[in-house]
Structures are given as structure tokens and as C-alpha cells.
Amino acid sequence: MAERSYDPAAVEKKWQQRWEENKVNEIDLGAATDPYYVLMMFPYPSAEGLHVGNVYAFTGADVHGRHQRLRGRDVFEPIGFDAFGIHSENFAMKVNRHPKELVPENVANFTRQLKMMGFMFDWRHMVDTTSPEYYKWTQWVFLQLYKAGFAYKDVKEVNFCPECGTVIADEQVLPEGTCERHPETAVQRRKMPCWFFRTTAFAERLERNLHWLDWSEKTKLAQLNWIGKSTGAEIRFAVAGKTESIPVFTTRPDTLFGATYMVLAPDHPLVDKIADPEKSEEIARYREETERRREEEEKGQAQEVVDSDKVNRADDTPPDTDKTGVDIGAHAVNPATGEEIPVYIADYVLMEYGTGAIMAVPAHDDRDFAFAKRFGLPIRPVFNPDIKAVEELQLTSGQQKDGLTPHQIRQSVLEGDLCWTGSGNAINSENDEVSLNDLPVEEAKQRIVRWLVEKKIGKAETTYRLRDWGISRQRYWGPPVPIVYDEEGNPYAVPEDQLPVTLPDVEDFRPKGDGRGPLANATEWLKATLPDGRPATRDTDVMDNFLDSAWYYLRYVSANDPDRPYDPELIRKWLPVDMYIGGNEHAVLHLLYTRFICLALTEAGALEMGERPEMKDRGEPFRKFRAHGLIVKDGAKMSKSKGNVVNPDEYVDVHGADTLRLYLMFLGPYLQGGDFRDKDIQGARRFLNRLHSWYFGSNQPVVPDEELPRPLRVKTHKTIRKVRGDIDQLAYNTAIAAIMELFNEARAAEALSDFLRETIVLCLAPFAPYFAEEIWREALGKPESIWTSGRYPEYREELTVEDEIEIAIQFNGKVRDRVTVAKDASREELERAALGSEKIRKNLGDRDPRKVVVVPGRLVNVIG
RNA sequence: GCCGGGAUGGCGGAACUGGCAGACGCACCAGACUCAAAAUCUGGCGGUGGCAACACCGUGAGGGUUCGAGUCCCUCUCCCGGCACCA
């Protein structure tokens, strides 16, 4: 075969065409016998085109999918476009064009680039969230949740720009706290009616399932953090002289005897009912102050972000002396002591969390302690600090607590001069009915909760930081909320057979000035009819972009089905997704909303995914999720302002997609990310060049595999094992290194075998799919595509070990010599070999070794 | 402040459950080819000393466990990410 040089452009163009002609990437979902669903986070098709970050993410997923395919599985690897939402809309406004025109252009460009990169997508399953055929079903999803009681309308605070006269999204608020379109106008917080999804109803399952899901740990951790589960108790405090009672949530019910006052959030509804009327002015003033302070704080934080890249937020935490609050002139009764205790409002208690009220135990809570000091409130210690814990605290944190010894610290706590939140035993905690004294924290908790339950004034309780998901956007570029209102303003679901509620083709999609979404101006479109014939008005909001992307992986299987969102049979067969790969920046929002939607649809009876043994909750959409790392350029983050954004087109033009893919997967551990360096991509290109000329021009004789020298065969089988294992773990960089090693040895070998030549190209194929096809067909002369006829080679266990191995001989832990021994040499043989070494004898002199450590297969360490 | 992740040659990065540190690649140096350069090929490439054999040092810093530590334990420094008055 004549040697010819590697021309990536020609190779890639040829196979891209032929694959399309021969439908190599098309899959029959119904007929597949061994389904494997590989999913990657679908992109928002920006005007700039595919970012190298997308390419990195997609390549990693594609390598995984192609590897599975070579191992004989029926791999479904779909793609789509997340083209609704604020990004598209903002960009459209900026360039003064309609998003409706821009999206198809961007999608076309993305499609070109995605095809160019050689991803194994079955384009027949492509979805576009902005097409009515898609968002019809997004609205359907809303209706399923609405019918099941998981969607409701409420009033919530949102960002409002007075200049635009409309609500804007968090993402549109500049760091300075001003509107991005009016940088000199401060954004206000206003209460607006919005639709909410009841994510909190699933808080427990969302939390619990994280403990067994096979997801990247850091992703699960971020979600756990966000969901913020905490267990404790709810306790009702009677208000002296009133019928009302104040429920509080606490994680430390065991400190109940030490509760010496209470605090309500300033906006707690009970405040007006129980406060001394004489205090109302003071309360009103405090509420205003709180509001103002919060706004300033938001701005201040924003300002710091502007001032410096690295803000030391530690300074932000308000010093303890900053605690503010107002005595509202009411008294509550501590149910354990029977004492009347004062009730305050203070901004350190938040209405959004727990019950919006706390029992304050200054002796054992830092914040309560600071507040009590400030307002001169009694501090009653009810736990005797565990002295070991005190010592340890000093040791680990290095803090000297004002230079006190552990015993002095304990003494201070007992005198109410220090706050102790660690372990210890209860004291001063006894009444006629219950005593916690001497009990450690956990036991005291159980004891007091039992008593509270008996007295019917409390119970064990779990709260979550997670809040319901507000999905209304007073915007244009999204799916309209499928709700209509009668003249009294009562909501009615749009009947499913009337979907989609089409986004009207308005000329001006910009927000007007009346505080409602642009849809409010589509006068004709607004008119609707109720099922009973009465006139109705449409909801003028569109739904959050995160809803579009919360169910797209379900639509992929039935992308073109006009009659239903998804085929239940295909869903049972293909879902949950086997492997989902994406960026960890979506750890909380997208991935959490997605899990919620799936759980809620399942609960609503609108979805039933297949059974998988390890999936303990049938409503979870992803069996595995892996967060890939981030890619930087020359050690710095890529950003438009720095002008160091890598455009994949440039590199594909010069080197081809295969080289770019190979390089991206080689530059660092996929799950950790890495550094893109222009010079280094040369290495990947050179490797392919060398391979190409070797496959087409090597004049090494080809012999039956058994006739190859054993070390080369061993290397081959070891490589197969390593590459397979590494790809399974997404350790792509080391897999590629192993292939390079094998190739380096093969190229230097006396002779080759067909098995060896096929092995190298099959191992490489997931990384460089076009290149591999070229070699497979043109150099190896195979009649069919590697992607339909290729099978990942099997390694033979007995061929992964050398007959003879080299082991190290150490003297006192330092390598002094090496000897070659049979692979299964006994301990005695090894010891003899070691002691026979001249170097060891020299080191040992005429002494006898004190000890000889033998590690079969590895080394011998002679201690002299 | 809390919770995660990290620190290994000139550079990106390897190293299974403690067992030959630096795989693979980039850069660099030398040689071959060339009128020359590029490309390609061959060899070298952690530091110090030595003609060499070899010796000593070396995985952010300091201590510890062990026959043996990049890997395990303790303390500290710095970098990256998330959360933050969450009761």
C-alpha cells in the first residue's frame, strides 16, 4: 500500500457524508435489544457558536457512548437545543432583531459545528424547545402538575426595574444591583403574582435519594447543601394573656430549659396580633429599617464583587454587636420552666425558614448569645461542656478563647459568660414532669421530644431550606402559561386538546411599561373562551427556561410524535438515562428541577420509567451523572473580555475534529478539567500523523498473533484492559496515554499481527471516530463501517502477565539493584535472589541482614 | 466562618488496596536527513557532585506511623469551587 499523508479535512468530510448516507448513527429505539441511553446537557444555541467548553463536554459524553457501542450495546445519543429563555431574548434585544429570526440561524450554525465534531447523534431525534411541537408538551407538563396539585399561584417578591416597568430575572440584575438595560437604575423588589411548583412537597425524596444515587459526589453535595435538611422539633409557646401560640422550629429542643426569650421575624404575621399596641410605631420603624438595610446590603455585596475579583466575604458576616431588634411588649411562656419570657422581633430571624420564629437559648447559640448580650437578656446555661470537646476545640481551631484554659472556658460557660454549642451533659433542666439532667445532647433531645408530644405542645420535625420553584416570567421568549382567567380572575387550565397555547407573533417583544409581560399587549391573543363559553383572558406570563430543559430527555425518545409527549413503551425501555454528563454549574438548578419534574410527573401518574435494580425510587431520571471539569486557556479562565475564548472552528480547520477531540480528552483528567494550550495540540496531531503513516506505510511483516514476542502480546492485552477500564471511569487522558505506549512499542517491533493492528485502532476509535473509520476501511480493508462491524477487542487474562518480571532489590528501603525473576517466584527464591545481589552484599558487608521483607511480584527489602 | 477539591520536573499531567516517583505528551538539547529551514526520524532530558561507576537530595511546609509514605495520621501555608445570621 502506498504511503500517503493524513489529510483530516478530506477524511472527515468523506466519512461524515458516508455515515449519513448509510444511516450509521440512526437507531431503531423500538427494535434495540440492549438499550443504553447517553445524555449530555443540551446547549443554548448562542450567536457565537459552539464554545470549546461545549465541545469538551460533548466529546467526553460521545467517547463514552461510542465505547459502549463498540462493546455491542444499542446506544441512544440524542441532541437538541435549549433556545428559549433570557439569553436568547437579551441577545435579540441587543442586536435589535427578533429571537424568532435569530434562533434558526444559530441552530443552523450549531448543527453544522456539531456534525463537524463527529458526535454520534441520531439527528432524527433532535428537539428544539422553541418549536410549538415541543412547547406544546412543556405546557402539558405544567398541566399535569397543576392537576396533581403540584402547581399553584401565589404572590412573591421579584426583581422589578422601574425604568423598564417590568420584572426582570436575577440574571439580568447587574452586580451593582441595577438593571442591565438601565445601569443607573436600581432594581426594586416587588411582590408579584407568580406560578409556583411545589418542590418542597418532594424535599424529603429529593434529599433521601441523593444518598444512593450514582452521581458525582460534588454534585450531590451541592444539592444536599441547597436542600438544607435539618432535623429537630417544632415547639409551640403559649403567649401570656392571649389565645395565640408561637410555633418555633429548633434543632436543639434539648436546650428548651435555657430558652430565655423568643424572636419572631420582623414580618411574622403573629407580630401584629400579640404585640403591645403601644409598640406598633417602633415595630413599624424597625420593619422599615430592616427593609432598607437589606437592600443596602445587597447593593454593598454587589459593589464588592465589582471592586475586586477576590472578595473576602468573611468580613461580611455582621459582627455580633450588630444585632438589632425590638421588644414587642409581649410575653411567651417557656413550657418547660413555666417562666414568662419576652418576645422580640429581629432581622436575624428569617420568615422564609422554619416557622419564622425561634426560641432563643443564648447560652448555647452564638447568635442568641450576641443578641442577649446586646439587650441585656438573661443567659441560662443548661449544658455542662464536655471537657474533652473543649480541649479538642482549642486544638483544632487553634483559637485560645482569650487565653483561657479548658477548665476556665467551662467555668465561663457555666457562668453565662461564654456560649457553648458543642457536646456536654444537661444541667438545670428539670421540672415536675421531666428531667434531662446529666443526659448527653442526643438523649436529652429524645427525652424532651417525648415529653413535648405527651403534653401535645410539640413534635419531632424536619425542615428544609429548599423553597418552591417560581416559574412565571414576565417575558416574551418562552412557552406561555397554559392558564386562562374568568372575569373574577379565577384560573382555569387550558384543555389539553387546545394545546399549544402558541406564543403570539408580536412585532415588539420588548417589555412595555405596565409591569406585565409583553404578552399583555397582544390584545387579540389575550382573548380566550372558558369551557362553558364565557369569555376569558390568558395568563400573560411565560414559563421559566428551566422548565423547558427539565423534561427534554423524555421527549428525545419520541421527538416527532405529534400525539403524545412520549411513548410510554419507549420510556419504560430507555429511561432512566444510563449516563448523564454535564457541567457542575447546573448542580443545583437544572439537575434539581429535573429530578423534581420527573418525581412529580411520576407521582401524577403521567410518567412511568423502566425498572432498574439499583434505582430505589422509580421517579429518578438519571442512573449516573458525572460532572466534567472545567477547561481553561493557558491557565486562565476563558472570557470574552479577555479575548482568550477558544473557537473550535479554528482548530478543526487546521487539524481536524479528531485531533481536537483527542487533544481535549488528553489534556487532563476529564472529571477535573484542564488547560488548553495551543502548542500541546500539536502532540495529538503528530500522534495521528504517525499512526496514519504507520497503518498505510509500515513494512513490518505481519505474522499470526501467536508468533509475536510475548512481551508485545502482553502489552497489547494489558492495554485493552486498561483502556476499557479507564474509559468506563472517564479517565480518558490515561487511556490515550496507554494507547500511545502500545503504539510506540508496536512501531518498534520486529513484526506485527492483524490483532495488534486492529486493537490499536479500535481502542482509539471513540476518541477519533473519523480517523478510526479511515484506517478500518482503507488501511485494514474492512468491508463495513467500524461503527457497525467493529467490536472492542477482548483481552485474555493469562496474556496480561509477563513470564518474567523485574523486581526491585532494596537495601534499607533504597533501591540498589534489580533482578529478573519468574513471575511466580516464591518468597524463598526472591530472598535468595536479593541476597545474591552483589550490590546488596557490598552494602551488607560481612554482617547478616537483620530482616528481609519480601513482597512477591514487587520487591525485596533487605534491612541491614 | 462552614463544607468540598487541590498543591508532584521548565509545562500539562501519570503512579492499583502504602512497594522501583515523574508514564504519556509539550517544550528544550544533541545527532541524522537537507544547500538551508520546516517537517520527519534517532537519542537525551528532576536537582547537586563526579570522566565514570556511583552517591546524596527530591512529590507545598513541619512532625508522626512503617522495613518502606506522593499515597495513612496530626499541625500549618497557599490556590480553586459551593454555602453562609438556616434556628
Quick description:
The protein is an alpha/beta fold and 864 residues long. Residues 301-320 and 396-400 have low confidence and may be disordered.
Largest sheet: 7 strands, mixed
At the fourth level of CATH, the homologous superfamily of the domain at 230-463 is: Valyl/Leucyl/Isoleucyl-tRNA synthetase, editing domain
From the alpha carbons, calculate the radius of gyration and give it in angstroms: 34 Å
Q: What is the first-to-last residue Cα distance?
A: 61 Å
pLDDT < 50 stretches: 301-320, 396-400
Count of helical stretches? 28
The coarse overall form would be globular
Indicate the multimeric state.
single chain
Secondary structure: helix percent: 25-40%
Number of strands: 32
So what's the CATH class of the domain at 230-463?
Alpha Beta
Beta-strand share of residues: 15-25%
What is the average per-residue confidence, as pLDDT, rounded to a whole number?
87
Structural class: alpha/beta
What does this protein look like?
It is a single chain. By secondary structure, the chain is α/β, with parallel strands linked by helices. Among the domains are: 144-198 and 469-545, no CATH class; 230-463, Alpha-Beta Complex (Isoleucyl-tRNA Synthetase, domain 2); 648-799, Orthogonal Bundle (Isoleucyl-tRNA Synthetase, Domain 1), CATH 1.10.730; 803-863, Ubiquitin-like (UB roll). The chain contains 28 helices and 32 strands. The strands form nine sheets. Strands 9, 10, 11, 12, 13, 14 and 17 form a seven-stranded mixed β-sheet that branches. Helix 22 packs parallel to helix 24 (754-764) and helix 23 runs antiparallel to helix 24 (754-764). The longest helix is centred in the middle third of the chain and has 28 residues, at 280-307. The protein is globular and about 100 Å long. Mean pLDDT is 87; it is low at 301-320 and 396-400. It binds one RNA strand of 87 nucleotides through helix 7, strand 10, strand 14, helix 10 and helix 21.
